Amino acid sequence: MMLITMLTTGTRGDTQPFMALGLELKKKGYRVRIAASEAYQDFIESYGFEYAMLRGDVSKIIESGAADDAINADNPLKFFSSLKNEKMMGMMVNIQKDLHKACKGADAIVYHPGAAIGYFAAKEMNIPSILASPFPMTPTKDYPALIFYDRPRFGKIYNKLTHHIFEWGFWKVVSGPLKKYWVQQYGEGPNDFSCPYPKQRTAANPTIISSSPTVFSVSKDWPEHVHSYGNWFMDSDHSYQPEEKLERFLKAGEPPVYIGFGSVGDKKNAGETTALVIKALKLAGKRGIINTGGSGMNQTEEIAEDILFVKDIPHEWLFPKMSAVVHHGGAGTTAEGLRAGVPSIIVPYGNDQFAWGRKIHELGAGAKAIPRKELTAEKLSAAISYTQVNEIQSKAQEIGKQIRAEKGAEKAAQVIINTLETFGNK
């Protein structure tokens, strides 16, 4: 049975799409090994995948503050410079060894852009590599790269240039620790050590994108072997059972508004943010579910009947039951909100979150984004009320229906299978 290794990086939202892709490959008779943070070992193994450990609990790394600059970078320059801080670099060098080890014995390597060692390991082993991106990053004239998306526009040539800058900048960040590890291992850097992303556009080395064509259309100027068929969704977390108090709350009134900021919330100001959110819900006259599973909000002692505090509820289960979802605008959370067919209000903290905030509003599926630095109870209340009008609700439902029909993971899995066949026939 052929083995496909998947190299992920980041939080659960970064890891889960790879699991969705892996489930489709397992259906076709392939073994799948997933390299991910040790925090997700039980989750990954519960679906029958082989697990390869990446040292370090990503949630604890975030809580430590080591990644604060990267998480909250609000312009492209800050994004690239933040990822090169000393603490982050040290952790990234250690992780290269684990990523490389996970590739041993594989017949193909599917890798996140942040795990670019996958390309060089595949070359070393003479097997195909597949770049698996959570967002469109192949250069196009149609729109700017995500970290430039919510900034001034200067035309098609500029749009394409921003993608090249993004590829170069991303490579500059990951290449340092990768080369340092490789030299430690072999005494020299990998052969043809240069940016791998532009090389992942051939039949034997394609790119697949976990993104919906409904949200970012497939660009006509993309090469043939760049594939975007839809997000890679898991149907449900089969281990999840809702608490009785949550089921009672959902049945007790109209659909509530969900508010949660994932792992990017500011722990120091958690009390202030919680009070702001509660005030916004009251001003809008809405029931609310507040997720304190990250570090951005706290449960208060005074618990109102129309507000429920929760932790770590699967978005795919909860979001379809909401009247709107307020979140930080991570790619995975944004996709789940769109799939659920409910309007979103994005409160971006940094990086690509500003792009998703702008895109949601452009699609007509939510309110205009409110950057965290500008968030007030009054602005959030107005945004919540905006999402409750029929036009916005209907548009969100229409987009959700389109996204649910796309079968992105199934089609992307077939690209991987075709790649193995192409490579075997070379």
Automatic annotation (TrEMBL):
PANTHER family reported for this sequence: STEROL 3-BETA-GLUCOSYLTRANSFERASE (PTHR48050), STEROL 3-BETA-GLUCOSYLTRANSFERASE UGT80A2 (PTHR48050:SF13)
CDD domains: GT1_Gtf-like
Organism: Priestia megaterium (strain ATCC 12872 / QMB1551)
Limits of the Glycosyltransferase family 28 N-terminal domain: 4-141
Protein name as catalogued: Glycosyl transferase, family 28
GO annotation, biological process: carbohydrate metabolic process; vancomycin biosynthetic process
Keyword DNA repair (UniProt): no
Superkingdom, natural source: Bacteria
EC number(s) given by UniProt: 2.4.1.-
Erythromycin biosynthesis protein CIII-like C-terminal domain residues: 297-421
Coiled coil: none
Keywords for the protein's UniProt record, in alphabetical order: Glycosyltransferase, Transferase
InterPro entries linked: EryCIII-like_C, Glycosyltransferase_28, GlycoTrans_28_N, UDP_glucos_trans
GO MF assignments: hexosyltransferase activity; UDP-glycosyltransferase activity
Leading EC class: transferase
Keyword Membrane: no
